[in-house]
Amino acid sequence: MSEKTLQHRIDGPDDAPVLVLGASLGTTWHMWDRQIPELTRQWRVIRFDLPGHGGSPAYPAASVAELADRLIATLDGLGVDRFGYAGCAMGGAIGAQLALAHPQRLTSLALVSASPRFGTADAWRQRGVVIRTNGLDPIARTAPERWFTPGFAAAQPAIIEWAVQMVRTTDPGCYIAACEALAAFDIRGELGRISAPTLVVVGSEDLVTPTADARTLVAGIQDAGLALVPGTSHLAPVEQPAAVTELLIRHFSTAWQDKPAGQAALGATPPKPVLDPAPPQAQPQPPAVAIEAAEQPQMVRTGTYEEGEKVRRAVLGDAYVDRAAAAADDFTGDFEDFLTRYTWGEVWTRSGLDRRTRSVITLTALVTSGHLQNLAVHVRAALRNGLTPAEIKETLIHTGVYAGMPAAGAAFEVAQRVIREETTPED
CA 125, CA 143: separation in Å to the nearest integer? Predict the structure, then answer.
């Protein structure tokens, strides 16, 4: 399989309109298994795995845009021009990116448990540090808490074990790359450019992508509606498969019917569905809810300063940069501007060295010059930039030979404290 394409599976009639399903981070296409029997009555369903997930080759992707481009390359190889798309969580981010970058390809869109910005960049990079140090097991063990309500988890132990094993068998490098991609993902200022008819689905108990995120999506997208699935957490298609399936069928049937003649995927217009009666255990159809207007995001400046701030936040973390900005006043503000523009916008952005190497140099320089007051933040930065605790240790030992053992000893005390804080998984 090419590095530019994604592992995929196709179900349903060859001559039916195409519906593509995208999975969330840490899952495989099997998270959509319980939707397939109903969806394939009317659609040719294509599911794909993220890089390093399931049995897919471990070709890490640096951004959500790259993942969307790989999906387009995959669909091009299958001869698919226009299609509907439904994605959960990271799969939803890919769908939103498709709507922005390839609007002519997309007939309609469903964003399940999605957000225009998933949490904070700091949190995603922190997760990457934990995985790089401890492997995926801590993330796998806590996945059910993030994905399902406690009642569902207690009643479905087999599904919980399946979920844990999915995460454990994911390639760590690809998972870390996906964390970095989500850290950089922020389309709050671009939602108005999404023109595809869009359904936003969110579980009422979802703490990962809460209802406030769903409301932001609906308020920003010009043709969007919201469906709230009661008593459901983040992995709604697994926890409430019947409710999510019915929502998708109604949305994509209506969206395709609303398209002018000749615009439907593969030239076909599916009929309005006739649903079988829902099984007794299924939740009733969740109603759409009214959406109030969301506050518009601020405009983002461009230029060397902005590039420097972007890199500074990626390396040092939002919290640190926000504190520095808040502390700046008339006396120190010009220095903060100079620091961001020159150190981060001119030097750290140069292509001659990667960020890992720059972190090694920075640690060495700080220890050698005795500036231990700045060492803690750059130990954290080194972890974010991909250095392992073992590599940081070797850097300090090597520096000690040339800078002196007392300096290295003091540096070890600082680095040990920071590494313990940064690499200890949350309970």
Answer: 17
Tens-digit pLDDT profile for residues 62-73: 999 999 999 999
On the question of pLDDT at 351 being above 90, the answer is no
The b-or-e profile of 195-210 (16+ CB within 10 A means b, else e) is ebbbbbbbbebbebbb
The answer to whether the beta carbons of residues 378 and 362 sit under 8 Å apart is yes
DSSP letter at 288 equals B
Distance CA 175, CA 138 (A): 13
Nearest to 39 by CA among 191, 249, 336: 249
CA distance 79 to 41: 21
DSSP state of 286: P
* 3-state SS, residue 200: strand
**What is the distance between the alpha carbons of residues 225 and 251, in angstroms, rounded to a whole number?**
10
Of 22, 40, 64, nearest to 181 by C-alpha is 64
**Per-residue pLDDT for 244 more than 90?**
yes
412 versus 256: the higher-pLDDT residue is: 412
Sign of CA dihedral 320, 322, 327, 330: positive
Nearest to 31, CA basis, from 19, 20, 21: 21
Query: What's the CA gap between 116 and 186, in Å, rounded?
Result: 6
The pLDDT-based confidence of 336 (bands split at 50, 70, 90) is: confident
Which stretches within 190-287 are classed as H helix? 211-220, 236-239, 241-258
Q: Whole-prediction pTM value? A: 0.73
CA distance 112 to 217: 11
Least confident of 9-18, 183-192, 377-386: 377-386
pLDDT at 93 over 50: yes
How is 361-408 classified by DSSP, letter by letter? HHHHHHHHHT-GGGHHHHHHHHHHTT--HHHHHHHHHHHHHHH-HHHH
- How far is Cα 426 from Cα 123, in angstroms, rounded to an integer? 12
Residue type, position 140, single letter: A
Q: Would you state the pLDDT for residue 342?
A: 85
Tell me the backbone φ, ψ of residue 40, rounded to 5 degrees: -75, -5
Q: Whole-number mean pLDDT of the chain?
A: 86
Asked if 135 contacts 98 with a C-beta cutoff of 8 angstroms, the reply is: no
CA dihedral 240, 242, 245, 250 (to 10 degrees): -120
